[in-house]
Amino acid sequence: MNPAAPPDPPDSGADAIRQHHVMTAEERAEYERLRRHAAVRHRRVRQTGSSVLLLLALLLAPLAVVAAWVQDTVSDTDRYVETVAPLASGPAVQEVVINRLTDRVVDNVDVPAVTDSLVTVLQDAEAPPRVVEGAESLEGPLRNAVRTVVDRTVTGVITSDAFQQAWEDANRRSHAAVVNMLTGDREGAVRAEGDTVHVDVGAVVDQVRKRLVDAGFDKAAAIPDTDRTITLFQTEELDNAQDAMRLLDILGTWLPVLTVVLAVLAVWTNPAHRVMLMITATGVALTMVVLLVALAAVRRIYLDSVPPDALPTDAATAIYDTFVRFLRDSTRTLLVVAVLTALVAYLYGPGRLARTVRTAGDRGTTAVGRGLRRAGVSTGAAGRRLTDHRAWTTGGVIAAGALALVLWNHPTAGAVVLVLGIAVAVLVLLAILAAAAEPADRAADRATEGSAS
Predict the structure, then answer these.
(1) For the chain, how big is the Rg over CA atoms in Å?
(2) Helix (H/G/I), strand (E/B), else coil: 192
(3) CB 202 within 8 A of CB 228
(4) For a FRET experiment, which of 32, 40, 43, 115 has its CA 20 to 30 Å from that of 155?
């Protein structure tokens, strides 16, 4: 053994063989099988996660709409006044207030005492018996006359523009009334007591009493300050509704954001983004339909729970429809947005109808663009850039439309249709401008000819 001998060199040949190893057909097949298996497993995991996110988003969507409506109505004074203002001008509600106030005024006018006093005076004056008997029978006509005058006075107050303005001002000052109704506090114009919801018409009573006194009805000054409320509805489930509304009020800010984030993640995590977008939009549309049906069912339950002697059906209907009209409008708007989103996602797909629509649109815009070019109107390099970056321009127009709806203050279904129409018109115009450009090779030839000459 030679201790001075150098150590054996590393097996560089083996390393080179490992580094340049060529897989056999069997190894390649096994590798492809494992890769496909891993891809399928990864795809299934993404699809499962996407489905779970979608399910959560669809379950939260109706609650998010209601929560946003509650939060918006409670936190925005102008929105609240806009919500309750129509109650002062609704004929059915006005009729209820007029009848209730007229009854209270007439009940406080002691018509029998007036007729008794008149009979006593006539008897003391030794009036003929027939005259005394006639005075005794004046009670009915006098009561009718009093009611007619009072009804006319009250009607003038309730149907006047001054009352409409006073109603709006009072509700603006007592904006906390909606919060009180939802939380059960006993303050404000609209409040809940037990299982009953009342509206305070004290300001109206004061105004009617003043006008009647000014008109000569001194007895109107005796109208009591008690019983100055009108029952809106009574239900045993009010406590549960208040608890639900408190929770919705708390979640009103973040629940819509969470729902949108879940929906976006559901589309993003799914391998088939376009298909998942179409499914998500369709699911949202269905949940909005369910919410509209639920509102109709609650409306029927509410009307059935209101006794006719407490509030006429037409007045109860007007009150319910007035309070929920913005919620109904928001639901319809989201329904239209979801349907249009699903339709656009489908039109960008490989379906036969989608291809037909796209082909027809391309042929139409191309024909118009070529017609402009033949007429001497050419967009030149700008048109060619539009053609080269068509995907970016289309995405920009769609993003601008979505941003317009986001920035729009309480958009309606009509606003959505308007924005869609403008976006489609802009896309058609851009396609025409792109088609009006000369092909790049022809433009290059013309440039060469110009430089040669």
Answers:
(1) 38
(2) strand
(3) yes
(4) 115
